[in-house]
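Q: What changes when magnesium ion is included in the input?
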Amino acid sequence: MIKGIPVSQGIGIGRVVLADAGEPVWNPEKAVDPNAEKDRLHHALQRFNEKTEHLAKSIEQAEDASRTSDSSQAEILRGHIAMLADPFLISQMEEQIAGGKCAEDACYAALSMFESIFMQTEDELMRQRAADVRDIRRRMLQILTGTEPAPLGDIPEGSVLVAEEVTPSMLAEVNRKNLSAIAAEKGGNTAHSAILARSMELPAVYSAEGLLRSVKQGDLLVVDGMDGKVIPNPGQTELEHYQTRQKEELERKAQLEIFRNRQTKMADGQKKEVFCNIGTPEEAAAALEKGGEGIGLFRTEFLFTEKSTMPDEETQFQAYKTAAECFAGKPVIVRTLDVGGDKQIPYLHMEKEENPFLGFRAVRFCLKNVQLYETQLRAMIRASAFGNLMIMIPLVTCVEEVRSVKSLVKKIMCQLDGQGIPYNKELKVGIMVETPAACQIADLLAEESDFFSIGTNDLVQYTMAADRGNPKVGYLNRPMHPAVLRSVRHIIACGKKAGIPVGMCGEAAADPLLTPLLLAFGLDEFSVNPSAVLQTRAQIGKWTGEKAEKIAEDVFQMKTAEEVEKYLKSI
Ligand code: PEP
Ligand code: MG
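A: The predicted holo structure follows.
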């Protein structure tokens, strides 16, 4: 059994499909026959070219068929073929083989030399080519070592996706119907692929260290997304145990169906709301279907990352309008571009930073790239004529940022007035409270904002000074830490005092253990992954204000996250 982090609930059982095992390992023994090694190298080069061309063609065909793909991806792949055909590079590999190296070593050495040449240049674009070289090196070594990843488009039914790190693009490629679960060596609860796994209702366990050493293609694998365990090749009794648990879990889910069309209410009748987090306009319909009462967070960066150029105003307008219309008058909170940190957009050519999470990201970047920002704001403001759309500013740390965004909004509204273009004159502009600075000045920010939404994913990482993507400090990334709980309580209290609604769109909003605490603090709106709507609504219905307050009182006597967690599990 391998322990990891449960990132998407449920039990999944199936056969391993190795999506990407990272850079392969091989035996670096001296090759006995240079001629045979040279042949192996050339066969691998040929296979690389055929496979890459095939992939480029299928991307182009998908683009013709659905207009969702991107021709630049095909161009990039053809660039890889050209790069690997470089006569100097091939002569370097052949020289290594002639010197007694095996094909893997030769390939590794020559491509690593190319990588370091690119890495040493001052030019950011040239440095990005180093990533291409790493990608080529990994794929060539996979061919040479016979560990090529399975093509994800046609995996067999009952597959479990296993990778070093699961990317959102892997999940986009895979056939959901045939997938039972996901397991990965890296990643945590707030990784974007984890968020997608939850939307796809796929049990998933991340940060399962040693996983890739323990499984091979086709092995039977149990993924326990409840307790964060991965069990390769279980014995008969263990398998039966998990099959029973899987059945129980499906029954539990079916029972939650009664909450689908209900209002969200506490046990004493207090009204609350469960909203959804989405990343694309298409997900809005699914969120509504899952029983969401609004959209609490539309992450607009996916509109930017799925293309090779900036989406223009019209494309963005259509996306925001689709979501607003889908919810027909119910709130749809659209967040302005949260680029930077772990979300890079190549065509924006952002400079490499020492500390990207503390750097030029989100509203900081947007306010310095006014043309880009005005295009987005204009698209949002125009879409506000088609529903109850609200604008949300990410990563706020100062009052000036809110004022600057609001003055841009005002300026655009004046332009639209002049052009006779309709929009909602009462359009609300709120903020994400997700930095310790925003928490400390929440009272001041509340005077400038129409609403708050607490972004616990970032609030936890910044409060705890623990990178949300680094498994080594994952033990600190806990919303139940007293520092985080005090912050959340304070932010909600400031919002309430100023009379503005306070929601939460970080992943903590969907944690059933935290529900009574959040209710006691006075949270109005829980914005969760669509797959967690019913469970969150059911959970809210369990508590009266009085009982929740008693629990909060007890929790605030406690000094550690462990104590809090143990207590919340016991009630
Ligand atoms: C958050 O930080 O809690 C949040 C919802 O935003 P993101 O995960 O996109 O940073
Ligand atoms: Mg955030």
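Observations recorded in class: Residues 180 and 280 are 24 Å apart (CA to CA).
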